[in-house]
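Here is the promised in-class demo. Please do not try to memorize the tokens; focus on the logic of going from shape to residues.
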């Protein structure tokens, strides 16, 4: 095969993402004719047409889709190598962590604790939705994503998913609401207003299965998809919360909240999602061991 020009490959990637020569040329600060010439040179080198025209847009052919997959892999590897070697050459190393916005802050701190306070480490922590974080991981803007939602994985997926913790789930409330006398779990679930995770969460699915087995119709006082909001609601005595004790560890320690009952068989699983990388961030080994 003819010599593969990486500059041509980078221009091809820009056209593939934009879908037009005009838009890509503007973004690249090239003339449209010059860009077209470069793309034709790449097609000649590969011996395949990479685009077909549909109206004003350029659509990838089958060969074009294959070429784009390889181009993305080539440039990800180059960016990964550059970032890794820059960090190894300096006095401080950075770890870029993405965390699901609804994830327990206490858990996040527990995960990061081995690195907190190290003078040679900078921890960059960003929160967001699962799709946003996974895009950041793919773009190598993040080294790891912390989540309680396992991303979809297939034969083409590059995600590495590691279970890093599993926490029990309990019914938790204020001492004033629970009173001095312990009560059995079915009575608590039947008589008390409850603060629940939203229906689309794995935690709620486990709880709904539990009350179905017990034949109980709960009184739902509030629902939230955010652990921080569940924590605030139970602190305000809106009801008993279905929540991992780690989320309210400080309040349990101070006596502001009380664990009324453990919900056996229900757990919250915490995951670390990374990508297969030729040059993984060495700081991750300290956290994932």
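The designed amino acids, position by position:
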């Amino acid at each position: 095969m003819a010599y593969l020009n990486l500059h041509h490959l980078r221009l091809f990637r820009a056209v593939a993402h934009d879908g037009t020569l005009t838009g890509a040329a503007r973004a690249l600060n090239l003339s449209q004719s010059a860009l077209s010439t470069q793309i034709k040179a790449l097609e000649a080198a590969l011996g395949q047409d990479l685009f077909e025209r549909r109206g004003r847009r350029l659509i990838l052919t089958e060969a074009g889709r294959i070429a784009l997959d390889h181009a993305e892999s080539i440039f990800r590897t180059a960016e990964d190598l550059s970032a890794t070697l820059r960090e190894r050459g300096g006095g401080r190393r950075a770890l870029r962590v993405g965390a699901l916005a609804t994830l327990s802050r206490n858990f996040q701190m527990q995960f990061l604790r081995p690195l907190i306070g190290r003078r040679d480490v900078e921890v960059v922590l960003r929160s967001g939705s699962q799709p946003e974080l996974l895009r950041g991981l793919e773009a190598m803007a993040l080294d790891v994503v912390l989540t309680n939602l396992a991303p979809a994985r297939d034969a083409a997926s590059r995600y590495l998913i590691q279970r890093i913790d599993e926490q029990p789930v309990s019914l938790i409330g204020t001492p004033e609401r629970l009173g001095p006398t312990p009560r059995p779990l079915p009575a608590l679930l039947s008589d008390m207003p409850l603060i629940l995770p939203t229906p689309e969460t794995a935690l709620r699915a486990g709880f709904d299965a539990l009350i179905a087995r017990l034949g109980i119709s709960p009184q739902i006082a509030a629902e939230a998809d955010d652990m921080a909001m569940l924590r605030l609601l139970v602190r305000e005595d809106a009801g008993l919360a279905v929540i991992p004790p780690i989320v309210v560890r400080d309040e349990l320690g101070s006596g502001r909240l009380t664990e009324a009952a453990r919900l056996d068989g229900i757990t919250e699983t915490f995951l670390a999602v990374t990508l297969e990388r030729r040059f993984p961030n060495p700081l991750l080994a300290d956290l994932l061991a």
